[in-house]
Amino acid sequence: MRPAAQRLAAFISQVPKVGLKQALTNAGLANVEKLKPDEIALAVADVLVTDASQLIMTELRDAVATVIEELCEDAKSLEQAEEKIVESAGKLESVVQSLFECYIMERFKTFFCEHEAAKYGYEAADNILKEAREFISTEMDIQRVDKHDLTGVDWIGAEGAKIVDAILERTIAVYAS
């Protein structure tokens, strides 16, 4: 988790300095000129998330893609996407917090789909996931207040695992019981 967060923060920090196209190239993407704005999120996720187990890598990739999609929302061109990413570079802590929230949400969705979704219809399950996302966001806000700087947490170590597992357990207790 932490390496993906560090790579995402480094990528976003690089965009104001070298531009989006060069940052994408530096991240390892080829054919950047042909990339459409709606393809940026998955392309960035593919190059930033590489060193995890298959399930964790999938969850991290989806979380990174969600964050980039949110940052580039409504961008109609690479230039507009670049402007939005440049704006986000000044608030990296909130971007990293969003990544952690999205990752925990992806973990919850995996659990929910494996163990609980069959109990509910599509609409009810969708509402549960929306509520769980808000719950996780609130839990991360509490962590930020307690820890002050979530970027300083060792997310791949015991401290990060403890935070993720505790929030995930509380989310499961509230929404999947």
Largest sheet: none
The residue ranges in which pLDDT falls below 50 over 5 or more consecutive positions are none
Portion of residues in helices?
Answer: over 70%
Structural class: mainly alpha
Mean pLDDT: 84
Q: What is the global morphology? A: globular
DSSP E strands, number: 0
The ordered H/E elements are HHHHHHHH
Q: What count of helical segments does DSSP give? A: 8
The rounded Rg comes to 17 Å
Approximately how much beta-strand content do the residues carry? Answer: under 5%
Distance separating the two termini: 27 Å
What does this structure look like?
The chain is an all-alpha fold. Helix content is 75%, strand content 0%. The chain contains eight helices and no strands. The protein is globular and about 50 Å long. The model has no long low-confidence stretch (mean pLDDT 84).
Helix and strand topology:
Layout: H1 2-18, H2 20-27, H3 40-48, H4 54-71, H5 78-89, H6 92-115, H7 122-147, H8 158-175
Helix pairs in contact: 1-2, 1-5, 1-6, 3-4, 4-6, 6-7, 6-8, 7-8
Which key terms come to mind for this protein?
single chain; 177 residues; 8 helices; globular
Summed up, what is this model?
With 177 residues, this protein is an all-alpha fold. Helices cover 75% and strands 0% of the residues.
